[in-house]
């Protein structure tokens, strides 16, 4: 009679999950990241995953041009299925905005009178 060895299915890692997630997907990533005492939530659209560096990059949907480098080893959970922060509006509005004419970041009160 042959001996059958059953292999238990392997659990995916956060790195596997991030690699399988399409770029541009909105994510909430929880973990104890540098500079925080308590768990922290970083959120935005997935821009890239660099397994060699162990970093996932999220692009903020609130602050244009802002990205967050997330150390994959410090992730405690990942939430998908969201399309934004979940608030009716931003808790804080950006102090600076990108001027589409000059491409520079400036005060949000800037008015182009040209």
Explained architecture:
- The chain has 114 residues and is mainly beta.
- The chain has a single domain (14-82, 94-107), classed as SH3 type barrels, CATH 2.30.30.
- Helix content is 6%, strand content 33%.
- The strands form two sheets. Strands 4-3-2-1-5 form a five-stranded antiparallel beta sheet. It has a two-stranded antiparallel ribbon with strand order 6-7.
Q: Topology, please?
A:
Blueprint lengths: L13 H7 L5 E6 L8 E11 L4 E5 L7 E5 L3 E5 L16 E3 L6 E3 L7
Antiparallel strand pairs: 1-2, 1-5, 2-3, 3-4, 6-7
Summary of the model, kept short:
The chain is built from one helix and seven strands; from the N terminus they run αβββββββ. The model has no long low-confidence stretch (mean pLDDT 80).
> What is the radius of gyration?
19 Å
The chain-level mean pLDDT equals: 80
Q: Give a short account of the largest sheet.
A: 5 strands, antiparallel
* Total E-strand runs: 7
Task: Give the amount of beta strand, in percent.
Answer: 25-35%
CATH topology: SH3 type barrels
End-to-end distance: 87 Å
Discrete helix count:
1
Sheet/helix structural class: mainly beta
Question: Total domains, how many?
Answer: 1
Envelope shape: elongated
CATH architecture annotation: Roll
The neighbouring-strand order within the major sheet is 4-3-2-1-5
Give the % helix: under 10%
CATH class value? Mainly Beta
Low-confidence stretches: none
Order of helices and strands: HEEEEEEE
């Amino acid at each position: 009679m042959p001996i059958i060895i059953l292999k238990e299915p392997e659990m995916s890692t956060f790195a596997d999950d991030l690699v399988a997630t399409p770029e541009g997907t909105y994510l909430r990533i929880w973990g104890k990241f540098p500079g925080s005492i308590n768990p922290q939530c970083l959120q935005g659209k997935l821009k890239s995953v660099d397994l060699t560096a162990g970093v996932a990059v999220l692009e903020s949907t609130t602050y244009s041009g802002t990205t967050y480098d997330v150390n994959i080893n410090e992730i405690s959970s990942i939430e998908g299925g969201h399309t934004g922060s979940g608030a009716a509006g931003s808790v804080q509005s950006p102090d600076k905005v990108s001027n589409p004419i000059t491409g520079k970041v400036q005060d949000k009160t800037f008015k182009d009178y040209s």
